[in-house]
Amino acid sequence: MQTDRVIRERVEALGGGAEAPRSFRTPDPGDRSGWYSPNPSTTNPPVSALRFNPADEARSVAAILDQYADDATEAGPDARLLDLETVFRLSDTSSREHRQAEEDFILSVVSLMVQRHLWSPRLFNDTSVAFAGAGDDGTFDAALSVINTLRVNQRLPYGGAVEARWVTRAAQELVNQSTNSYTSSSDLVFAANMPLMRGAGRVAREDLLQAERETVYAARSYERFRRALLVSIAGDYFSLLETRARIANQRRQLESQIRREQETAAKVLAGRLNPFQNEITANAVKQSEAQLANLREQYILQLERFKLRLGLDPREMIALGEPGRGLRDPLVTPQEAVELALTYRLDLQNRRDRLNDVERAVANARNNLLPDLDLNATVAIPTDPNADQDGLSIDGGFTRYSVGATLSMPLDRKIERLSLRQAQIRLERERRAFEEFRDSVVIEARRSVRAIDLARFQLELAEAQIVINQKGLQDLSLRDDADPQAVLDRQNALLDAENARDRAITDLRNAILQHLLVTGQMRVRPDGTFDAPDGMLMDAPKTEDAVEAEYPEEEGFMPGELPGDEP
Prior knowledge:
Blueprint: H1 2-14, H2 61-73, E1 80-82, H3 84-93, H4 96-118, E2 122-136, E3 139-155, E4 161-175, E5 182-195, H5 206-269, H6 276-309, E6 318-320, E7 326-327, H7 334-344, H8 346-367, E8 372-382, E9 400-408, H9 414-477, H10 484-518, E10 537-538, H11 544-550
Parallel strand pairs: 1-6
Antiparallel strand pairs: 2-3, 3-4, 4-5, 5-8, 7-10, 8-9
């Protein structure tokens, strides 16, 4: 298909692993029964027809919430496993927003095909049939005439057009006073019209030129969208992993507080602690249960929205895998990031080229102020005009021709002058907008470097806080007279540090991918997966069992992380 070929040409011209969108599929029109109904049906029953069943206030809400969480998160053997690469592939094949971007690209190419067709030879055939009569002192003559015009025209590259016409005429006198009842003739006509001033030159091909450039912009925008979509989808995936980790942290916190509540109750019964301290630990357990329920609901909502964004059925059971290989921090300065962004950003290139379009529009507006000076020429070769029925026999001896010029002085060009002023104002606005966008790209590039360093710093602080709180909690657990409130404060501090660590890991992953996107270094493979630069990926962290087997005496690091390794 011609449209697919143009799309491939535009995408291949981008380089950098760009991928062409899928071919457009004609959608099913669906049910047509309601298309032409002047009064579409509405379903809106009165309140008397609605049913409301009150819930039992004595029901076990905690058990119901647990069931909600189990239904959404407990994946059986038939659940679909979604690791990060699978998520990327799904976003490239079934995501609705990705399909929308594909269609925008295809629509741009279709517009180009329309313009190209307008500049190609176009063939037309016009047939007219007329019945006419005339009266002469009560006597009427009637005739039937048929005129067929077969013509082809071609627009010229620098303005004007040429056309060739074959005109055939046939007439039949139905009621007449003469002896000749049928006549036929034909003409072969060549005509040309060419502007020399207004509308002449490259301005004549403005529509085609702009359509060609728009497809390049569309190809860049589509590729930029694919890269931004990957970063956004990865951010949603990492956010899900973070929420899941926070649930695990909260569950460990709850289990620890339940044990602390039992220990405190035993000490109160033994008379070693005041009874109010048992209430402190019991209240802490309730708070942890409420926080765990909130986190579960947050995770369920995130998961369902994530499935919706991937184009999956929200009822489909999925299991989230681990992200796989980690990302190393890039060694780059803010100034280097700015240079990369100004060189590689596709959206910045689009804005720069659109500024050229507006500058060209000013030149085109000036062209409209010129006088109209048009050359026209016509050559007609008819049949023998002295023969009544010469049919299609063209006779060059009766050729007619004409050559002329038309000059129209610009006595009224007020609208054109105002249009030029509008174009000049749009140019100034576009220049300011381009400069603002370019400066925003510079700011984003610098910030992307700082965001990586900030996330790494926050991660180091959180890991140090975890170690400190673990040691403090261990010290309190060895003391028989430890205050339960002090233990709870230390447990909460440990939970906050663990959540801060998980949040910093998410921020660091997002910051690295966002840096690649902001600087124009993000690349996406044809299947929608991440095409990382050499040296960026590192091996996935070992499992907890593998770490314990290899480092049986190491302490002070979190499960799934090697001591000294970057997370």
